[in-house]
Amino acid sequence: KQWYQRRVAITAGVLEGEIVDGTKFQRVSPNYFHPTSSCLRITDVGNFYALSPNRKTYIKVQVTNNNAYEELYLLSCSNTENYDVTIGFPLITSPDKKDKRARSNPVVLKSKQTAEFTVNVAAPRNTKEGRIVSVTCKVTASADELIDMVRLTEIPERFGKLSG
After folding, report:
1. Which of 38, 92, 126, 149 would be 144's cystine partner, CB 3.0–4.6 Å?
2. Closest CA to 85 of 132, 41, 131, 118
């Protein structure tokens, strides 16, 4: 495996290191990860991580540019069942500016900007109860390729229709 750490140092409670491909990282705690260039993360999933027949489940995906320069980012998503996936235009947030909606994917992010995409996965009529559908989102930039994944479970009908 090529993803293991090549060099690791612990200073003042912060784990720092370098991955074999030269990418640097910092880990402050098990719950916090601060990359040194770009960050991709799934922040929210709708419908309680479930896929209902003839319904869409949304996934919120954030891409952050931690570089000192602007960067072009392209988000793409796929899933193990080849269900229809749509990626909406991102909301761009900056530490010092008003939020704005971009009208493209790929999107150019200035230093410290974040783009939040809404990804919709549409389940067909014939879902199979209990089947796991893995959704993989990948963001590509000039120096980075980042991947995050979420697992959705197929259910026989909408939560609102389930009796309890």
Report:
1. 38
2. 118
Rounded to whole angstroms, the Cα distance separating 68 from 112 reads: 8
In whole angstroms, what is the distance from residue 69 CA to residue 111 CA?
5
- Nearest CA to 94 out of 67, 111, 113, 69 is that of 113
**Inter-residue contact 41 to 148 (CB < 8 Å):** yes
Residue written as token pair 């549409």: 122
Q: Which of 14-23, 82-91, 153-162 has the lowest mean pLDDT?
A: 14-23
Rounded alpha-carbon distances, angstroms, from residue 10 to 30, 62, 66, 94: 14, 28, 22, 31
Measured distance CA(129)–CA(114) in Å, rounded: 36
List phi, psi (to 5°) of 142. Answer: -60, -35
